Amino acid sequence: MPPSQQQIESLVQTALLVQQRAYAPYSNFLVGASLLTTTGKIFHGCNVENASYGLAICAERNAITTMVAEGEATIAAMVVVTKGGGSPCGACRQVMSEFGDNFPVYLVDSNTQGITHIWQMRDLLPGAFSLIQRDA
Ligand code: THU
Q1: What's the predicted TM-score (pTM) here?
Q2: Mean predicted confidence (pLDDT) in 96-105
Q3: C-alpha span between 103 and 106 (Å, rounded)
Q4: Which residue minimizes the CA distance to atom 10 of ligand 1?
Q5: In the prediction, which pLDDT does 131 show?
Q6: Is 60 designated active site?
Q7: Would you say the CB of residue 29 lies under 6 angstroms from ligand 1?
Q8: What is the DSSP annotation of the chain?
């Protein structure tokens, strides 16, 4: 079921808030992510960087690991907030694709607080690696 307007608005507000908590002193690129599960719960995450640069963790994956730790595993919608409305990196796309057949991914520009693009997960990562391929 697609998210309601009210759910989308809650996701956007949540992602905008958590973007402010990003720990990104090296890139100064703040990312906030929020997701809605098929059970109607919302989880969020921000990017967390490190002096050892390669250890940076993306906002999207932090939101997902929080979801899983809370006992949920199916995404119904996701919001990513950056300055300019950037899209998720390849690593995040692969991890996102693990937790839902297909779902909308809303990109939000923190400058305008508006949605700049709506992707379907299947279009963000066509041909994603999956258990089906591993077990073939
Ligand atoms: N980043 C994310 O949080 N999500 C993405 O999808 C792309 C990049 C973060 C990682 C790093 O902290 C900063 O943005 C700059 O690359």
Answers
A1: 0.97
A2: 96
A3: 10
A4: 58
A5: 84
A6: yes
A7: yes
A8: -PPPHHHHHHHHHHHHHHHTT-B-TTT----EEEEEETTS-EEEEE-B--SSGGG-B-HHHHHHHHHHHTT---EEEEEEEETT-PPPPHHHHHHHHHT-SS-EEEEEETTTTEEEEEEEHHHHSTT---HHHHT-
